[in-house]
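ingest -> validate -> predict -> emit
validate: passed (alphabet ok, no gaps, 66 aa)
predict: started
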Amino acid sequence: MWIVKLIDPLDETQIIWECIGETVSSIMNDYRESNPNGKWLNESIIRNSYSGRNRKDKYLIHVEKN
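emit:
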């Protein structure tokens, strides 16, 4: 189970988008459906944020895996 939250960069207490899914692919499908023009989020960004390799976006993307 993956949980992805996108945080507003201007107000870090506000969640812009949140999704819970079984796989990263299902989360990406939900993201594409709800944000047709949002192309900056992809599977590698989610996986890198989860593993800690994506330091520049760690305050904007929260990823948990249960």
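The chain is about 30% helix and 25% strand.
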